[in-house]
Design brief:
The protein has 5 helices and 2 strands, in the order ββααααα. The protein has a domain of 77 residues. It is mainly alpha-helical. Helix 2 packs across helix 5. It has a two-stranded antiparallel ribbon.
């Protein structure tokens, strides 16, 4: 049995042949490399079992950007989260991020929204206001900014 790896999953979006994740490492916790090794192994294990196959599942290494190392981490995080949410829309897999049955974005828009996988709301989201409704309303302003940037 594989050991547990501790981290926060702030966003996950499966898009055809790839997956987008926003992962928050924990103080004194595992590195992102170890976390990704764990995730990739579990996904490959489940897929191979479901498909009655064995062998490699993933091609290449994962891409990684550290939000906190960007020039302006908070706005970058919110642009990134909306970029990930809209990825299935851009790929023609979903008409709207809110209507994606396996998408994460409703966790940030609907209080106590549940998915089969646990999403931990990022601390930047909590900084947007005192109540969930206030946070969600301000969070939607970042969607507007993201969509406006697509038009330019």
């Amino acid at each position: 049995m594989p050991r547990k790896v501790h981290f926060e999953l702030n966003a996950v979006e499966i898009v055809g042949n790839h997956i987008h994740l926003i992962i928050r490492t924990l103080e004194n916790g595992e590195t992102i490399s170890l976390i990704m090794q764990y995730i990739k192994a579990r996904v490959a294990e489940k897929y191979n079992k479901a498909m009655n196959r064995s062998g490699a599942f993933w091609l290449g290494r994962f891409g990684c950007k550290i939000v906190e190392e960007s020039d302006d981490p908070r706005p970058y995080f919110f642009r990134l989260i909306w970029y990930i949410a809209y990825n299935p829309v851009r790929k023609g897999l979903s008409p709207n991020p809110r209507e994606n049955p396996i998408g994460f974005i409703n966790c940030y828009l609907i209080e106590n929204y549940e998915l089969p996988i646990k999403i931990t709301l990022h601390p930047y989201f909590y900084d947007l206001g005192d109540t969930f409704e206030e946070r969600a309303e301000k969070f939607l302003l970042y969607e507007d900014m993201y969509l406006r940037n697509l038009d330019t």
